[in-house]
């Protein structure tokens, strides 16, 4: 049959057709079972087929599925905005709903620039970012992304936003020890700001834990304090891209809580609708909104489907489900257990070079030689092979950008739904072990 669905990443490849999902498992139409240890793309945070979410969708669909945001608001959108403000740190009291993580980071960028314009400062237009980062696929979001592979085709259309190294301790660009490094890679931001001029820069954006382009790269203690101080000193807003880390993924509502920092703007997505509906958001603090509220009173962004009641009802139901079942509180315990099991695997499989991350966002980096940390040659396409092998073994794991910047090795993310149980983690590890045995 001629295939017309263009959205599949590898055109012409045979993708299994999923029939249904239940909890952490997906089942294809030939009856094969997959343990979803990647939550899709770190999205299905509460697993598949949750009755409470399905009921909320049905209820909202019966009332109204769509109203246009410049004409109406809805109960679902208002309650969701209120709930998010209550559950997040600081004064992130303003919520701008969109439909994808890319739209959320791009909206965050636009709000940051608008903030300065409304204050009468029109030179602050640049948004700085880090290499080995991913903030989305639309042009503004891609401009901010330090993902060389995804940028390559569109370079002439992109602004040159990535400027500093990531806090990639496993392969520290300065060859320093994380415990005693003086956060040189964070201090770089200060140098770059001096070169460009603070009066040109609206904001700095970073993923608290780098996901898709590095495999849960987690900064050392104190890193974000330095970043935040540099931003504040230079009147530069700090945007936390929590599209992957937000909504409990790392064991806190926002990953920024782990380092006790309050971002000026936050981008949310993925786990917000947990895969049941497309929804994302830019959360904005009171101090960022103040000049906009006193000025134009309009945020110059938005999409036709922004804040549609159907998606808002889903996200609200997801938050209520997380709260009612105390799911975020349990993440830490599950994380400790998962890491312990992964470390045992590491004893048997020398190609596991590094295990890192927080909560249920764990990265594994693979190396040819553990002592030397030598990456496998790119031509081997190790990540793709491992992922395929795992899928054959009924296990889904997530690729995390091998060879970005030409420095990192192959890495994958293990990020099951937060609702995974301890026996299910054992099953995940069993399938991972079989995958690694077949690979070695
Ligand atoms: N920001 C981060 C940190 C992401 O991981 C992603 C997607 O992987 C995005 C933004 C873009 O989100 P979306 O794919 O929903 O546009």
Brief summary:
This protein has 440 residues and is an alpha/beta fold. The chain is 36% helix and 15% strand.
Write the layout of secondary structure elements.
Elements: E1 18-22, E2 25-28, E3 33-36, H1 39-42, H2 51-63, H3 75-87, E4 94-98, H4 101-118, E5 126-130, H5 139-144, H6 148-151, E6 162-164, H7 184-196, E7 201-206, H8 223-233, E8 237-241, E9 265-268, E10 280-284, H9 286-294, H10 309-324, H11 327-348, E11 352-358, E12 361-366, H12 382-392, E13 395-396, E14 398-399, E15 410-414, H13 422-439
Parallel strand pairs: 3-13, 5-6, 5-7, 7-8, 8-9
Antiparallel strand pairs: 1-2, 2-3, 4-10, 9-10, 11-12, 12-15, 14-15
GO molecular function, one term: pyridoxal phosphate binding
Organism: Cytobacillus dafuensis (Bacillus dafuensis)
Protein name: Aspartate aminotransferase family protein
Q: State the low-pLDDT regions, or none.
A: none
Q: What CATH architecture of the largest domain do you see? A: 3-Layer(aba) Sandwich
Helix percent band: 25-40%
Strand residues, percent: 15-25%
